[in-house]
């Protein structure tokens, strides 16, 4: 009997979209990414960047509504109480120093493992109820900046800052993150820029890392496991790692230009010829520009101008890169491009750019994990088979 190729349940190849581009893969009440707006639970991103704090936005995402004054005070206090890390996690970060310095691990790897260890120690880890998930979300949100700060202290060979309380309880979420990394309490400008950057990065519907979190959560796995998956997805240079890659690109361009070897256009044309992937540009959804990019560009340039012309030079070069990309490739910058320059101007080590992205996006991830658990269906798409036709093993 000749084997027959099954056809009854064969997917329609015409419906296939590589990378799921343009495919509607679910519903969410958390965020809407549109050509003309980016909206978090009904609030547009420009409005939030101008008038909200990151703690308010995190409450909006996790709890589901804009907090009242008393709700915000309670939420902030809950985060402050949860900032400190268990000794086991702090010890892990100390011991991770050699792998970070030797390059066998990068900060995103260490952050992923730290979250996994926190899952082992969380009494609610295996409880997927709405109440337990919200408690876990607050703990993870509070602890990610502490992990980043302690990790940077270890990399710098300095004593861990604020271990007992996870920093300074008097500081905001954003200011405390900067303080724990550097040991210096930031001024109002630095705090504001970091706060706005966290707001801009907090949520973006079914991006790669959020979709990863939801796929994991859809199996009824736990929140810590889903967040670890999100971190692994965000690490990639085509997603969260783009802000690091964008700054490394600019660090190639500036000496080329400043040494007189050529112009920004010369460097870009060579990159085009070599078919280099230029990070910080383009977006799968936005076709006319990322709403977040000009907000962060303006704030970052203001910080650079305050520090001096040499720092503003990064943004001047960045503007030239943007012009060439738009002129020759019709591609706009995304938020990762100004983020790279802004964080660099603020003195943040480049390898910590993506972990800081996690400090923000974990609020959106946890909101999506909770939404998935609350109205779950296993996420299991089909694929178009491109292998050989059916044949016999002994024939």
Describe this structure in words.
There is one protein chain. The protein is mostly helical. The protein has two domains: about 40-235 and about 350-375, Citrate Synthase, domain 1, CATH 1.10.580.10; about 240-345, Orthogonal Bundle (Cytochrome p450-Terp, domain 2). About 60% of the residues lie in helices and about 0% in strands. The chain contains 17 helices and three strands. The protein has a three-stranded antiparallel beta sheet with strand order 1-2-3. Helix 7 packs parallel to helix 8, helix 10 (about 210-220) runs antiparallel to helix 11 (about 225-235) and helix 11 (about 225-235) packs across helix 17. The longest helix is centred in the middle third of the chain and has 27 residues, at about 130-155. It is globular. Residues about 1-10 have low confidence and may be disordered.
Keywords:
395 residues; mainly alpha; 2 domains; three-stranded antiparallel β-sheet; 17 helices; disordered N terminus
């Amino acid at each position: 009997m000749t084997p027959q190729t099954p056809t009854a349940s064969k997917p329609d190849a015409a419906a296939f979209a590589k990378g799921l581009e343009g495919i509607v893969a679910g519903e969410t009440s958390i965020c809407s990414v549109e050509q003309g707006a980016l909206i978090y639970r009904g609030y547009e991103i420009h409005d939030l960047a101008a008038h909200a704090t990151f703690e308010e936005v995190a409450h909006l995402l996790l709890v589901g509504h804009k907090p009242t004054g008393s709700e915000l005070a309670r939420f902030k206090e809950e985060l402050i109480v949860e900032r400190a890390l268990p000794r086991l996690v702090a010890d892990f970060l100390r011991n991770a120093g050699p792998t970070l310095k030797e390059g066998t691990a990068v900060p995103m790897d260490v952050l992923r493992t730290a979250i996994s260890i926190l899952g082992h120690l969380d009494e609610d880890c295996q409880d997927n109820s709405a109440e337990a998930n919200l408690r876990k979300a607050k703990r993870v949100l509070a602890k990610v900046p502490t992990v980043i700060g302690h990790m940077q202290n270890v990399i710098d060979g300095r004593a861990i800052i604020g271990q007992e309380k996870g920093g300074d309880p008097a500081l905001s979420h954003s200011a405390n993150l900067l303080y724990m990394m550097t040991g210096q309490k930031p001024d109002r400008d630095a705090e504001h820029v970091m706060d706005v950057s966290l707001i801009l990065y907090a949520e973006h519907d079914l991006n790669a890392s959020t979709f990863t979190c939801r796929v994991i959560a859809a199996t009824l796995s736990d929140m810590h496991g889903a967040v670890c998956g999100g971190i692994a997805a965000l690490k990639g240079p085509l997603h969260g790692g783009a802000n690091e890659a964008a700054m490394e690109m600019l660090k190639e361009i500036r000496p080329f230009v400043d040494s007189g070897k050529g112009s920004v256009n010369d460097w870009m044309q060579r990159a085009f010829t070599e078919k280099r992937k230029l990070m910080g540009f383009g977006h799968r959804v936005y076709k006319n520009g990322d709403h977040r990019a000009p907000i962060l560009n303006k704030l970052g340039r203001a910080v650079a101008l305050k520090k001096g012309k040499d720092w503003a030079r990064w943004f001047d070069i960045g503007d030239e890169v943007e012009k060439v990309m738009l002129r020759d490739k019709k591609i706009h910058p995304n938020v990762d491009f100004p983020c790279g320059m802004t964080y660099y101007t603020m003195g943040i080590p480049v390898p910590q750019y993506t972990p800081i992205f996690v400090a923000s996006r974990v609020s959106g991830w946890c909101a999506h994990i909770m939404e998935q658990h609350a109205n779950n269906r296993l996420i299991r798409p089909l694929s178009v088979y491109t292998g050989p036709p059916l044949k016999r093993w002994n024939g």
